[in-house]
Amino acid sequence: MGVATYIKDENDAIKEVILQSGIKVKPVYTPEDLERVGFDYEKDLGNPGEFPFTRSLHPLGYRSRNWTTRQYTGFGTPDQTNERFKLMIANGQTGLNVAFDLPTQMGYDSDDPMAEGEVGRVGMAIDSLRDFEIAFKDIQLNRIGSGLTINAVASVMLAMYQAMAEKFGYKKTEISATPQNDILKEMVGRGAWIYPVEPAVRLIGDTIEYSMTELPRCNPVSVAGYHIRESGCTPAQEISYAFMIAFAYIDNVVARGYKAEDFVGRFSFNLNIYGNLWENVAKFRAARKLWAKLLRERYAVQDKKALFLRGIFGGGGSGMTKQQPENNIMRGAYYALTAALSGAQTTALCSFDEAYTIPTERAALLSLRTFQILMDEIGLRDTIDPLAGSYFLETLTKEMEGKILEEMEKVEKMGGMVKAVASGYVQAEVSRQAYEFEKKLQEGLVKKVGVNEYTEGVDMEVELFEYNEEWANLQIERLKELRKTRDNRAVKESLKALEKAARDEQNVMPFLVECCRNYATVGEMANVFRDVFGEWTEPNIF
Amino acid sequence: MGQRKIRVLLAKPGLDGHDRGAKVVAHALREAGMEVIYTGLHQTVPSIVKQALQEDVDVIGLSIMSGAHIPISRKLMQLIKEENLDDKIVVVGGVIPSRDIAPLKELGVDGIFPGGAYFDEIVQFIKEKAAA
């Protein structure tokens, strides 16, 4: 959900507006407010494309380059997903955002008992390179970038993506993949973690280090404040936690003797949009500015492009409601508008049926059309950062900046994000926020159309995506066939080499690529790490 | 029932890691005076039943967001029967389309609370069932 809290009098007049991040909104803003917060054009905004990039990363914003649209896509078998990829691209989508099923995300093969009932359900099932070869068939990998929504085994998938692209004749230097690869946020929200905190962060360090020289067009990490926000934190906390997580990964690679300047430019972020329009636009503008400033201060990064907060700003699933689901089409349109007003480089929307299940083809296409209407009909490409200079928005951007720094300070005091997650501090704080918010919603202090007001009337029924258990059987048959026909000796040897690299703290990436080339399965590779690293035990926060 | 607090095991079965709902409900049940034991993520049905036995709970609550609520509930109800735990109150919450409510009831699930259910509704249901 995620809208502001409104205190009203008996005549429905608004007495007070409190944004989720805790900032009170005044009825009117004037130049005095800008003075109060110490607003300075050069220092706080700068021109588009200039430090601190509050207004835009590029001098001409959407005029020079339309945003990239990347709907989260994937279900069933690799064949079905390949068809959907092609449909979305044929309809004007400019990047892919790949959804994997839960067994793949958790490092289990499709025939593992733990995978039962889940194969191909919330994304596509991938067991080996053979599946990737099917999923990405006929996709121009030197033109279309792929976001890979995978975390605990992101290193495995990035290696598999490289092996697949090379098999199709592409050079590894020309492909662009963005594995999500953010395990700390999985531990706070989302929950697709396997290994303990320290080795899990090391694996991320390995992918960053490897990408610097081997996969220069890949973005090895997409730090996802998005999911922490979905789990209930405030918009300010979303940015604070994302930045603290990013610092944890940077520190891991810096400790290997590299300069942040040499790799941080390939970092990207995945951030969330739902709820209050103003709070979100201010959040993104403040985030772009703070990221550039903090990288300069903490890591002495000078290169302009390395200071960019690049990423995907996407419409969040938590804003969508199960009740009156067609209302979500309108919500999605406003979230997309928010993304455009915030200068999002890349965007995606949860489709209107996603409060129930993964989207139908029709729902996914409607989301894509939403973006296209905004950019081609409504005029969002006309001028850069159109809300700049608003007394209200500039004041709010400054206030958001303060809130973000305040929350970062709390994590800093705990010794950084690795410690704050290992101890359960962040998880406890996020679930407390979620509970407080839910209470307000149930008490009616926070309004949600069709949920706690205007609930009567049409009870809309929508057509839903149907999962077919037959897909799992097909996938399992294919996997069994693979195990019979591949060179099992080569598989065994490469897995052994991988295990040694994992134990000796060598970078595991070249070894994973070799395993993938030999058609080792995701489960086999993930189990090597399970043996060496063990599994994480969640801190008890109750 | 006397003074004994109602004991609830809140479980996240399967691979789905979305635990916002489970944690929020844990807060609410605790505030309503119940004892809540949260299993954490990635539990198997046998491990959930084992914990229900060990903790001697009155209620087993499953939170499922992935869409696999029917196969998982089927498995749980079977094992509960085998272990003679038929007296436990079973509730399921999560992303549950209305068309799946009847099949879940047929499996023997006592209460079904799709996302957005009010805390009061859940609390009252459990209290009434536990008193019966």
Please give the structural blueprint.
The complex is a heterodimer of chains A (542) and B (132).
Chain A: E1 5-8, E2 14-18, E3 24-25, H1 31-36, H2 41-45, H3 61-64, E4 68-69, E5 72-73, H4 78-90, E6 95-99, H5 102-105, H6 129-135, E7 145-149, H7 154-167, E8 177-179, H8 183-188, H9 197-214, E9 221-224, H10 225-230, H11 235-254, E10 267-273, H12 277-299, E11 311-315, H13 327-341, E12 346-349, H14 361-378, H15 391-413, H16 417-422, H17 425-443, H18 470-485, H19 488-503, H20 509-517, H21 522-533
Parallel strand pairs in A: 4-12, 5-6, 6-7, 7-8, 9-10, 10-11, 11-12
Antiparallel strand pairs in A: 1-2, 2-3
Helix pairs in contact in A: 4-6, 6-7, 7-20, 9-11, 11-12, 11-15, 12-13, 12-15, 13-14, 19-20, 19-21
Chain B: E1 7-11, H1 20-31, E2 35-38, H2 45-55, E3 59-64, H3 69-82, E4 89-94, H4 101-107, E5 111-114, H5 119-131
Parallel strand pairs in B: 1-2, 1-3, 3-4, 4-5
Helix pairs in contact in B: 2-3
Outline the structure in words.
The complex is a heterodimer of chains A (542) and B (132). Chain A is of the alpha/beta class and 542 residues long. Chain A has one domain (5-57, 66-443): Methylmalonyl-CoA mutase (TIM Barrel, Alpha-Beta Barrel). Chain A contains 21 helices and twelve strands. In chain A, strands 4-12-11-10-9 form a five-stranded parallel beta sheet. In chain A, strands 5-6-7-8 form a four-stranded parallel beta sheet. A three-stranded antiparallel beta sheet of chain A has the order 1-2-3, with no helix packed on it. In chain A, helix 13 (327-341) links the parallel strand 11 (311-315) and strand 12. The longest helix of chain A is centred in the middle third of the chain and has 23 residues, at 277-299. Chain A starts with a strand and ends in a 9-residue tail after the last helix. Chain B has 132 residues and is α/β, with parallel strands linked by helices. Chain B has a single domain (7-131), classed as Cobalamin-binding domain (Rossmann fold, 3-Layer(aba) Sandwich). Chain B has helices at 20-31, 45-55, 69-82, 101-107, 119-131, and strands at 7-11, 35-38, 59-64, 89-94, 111-114. A five-stranded parallel beta sheet of chain B has the order 2-1-3-4-5, with helices on both faces. In chain B, helix 4 links the parallel strand 4 and strand 5. In chain B, helix 2 crosses helix 3.
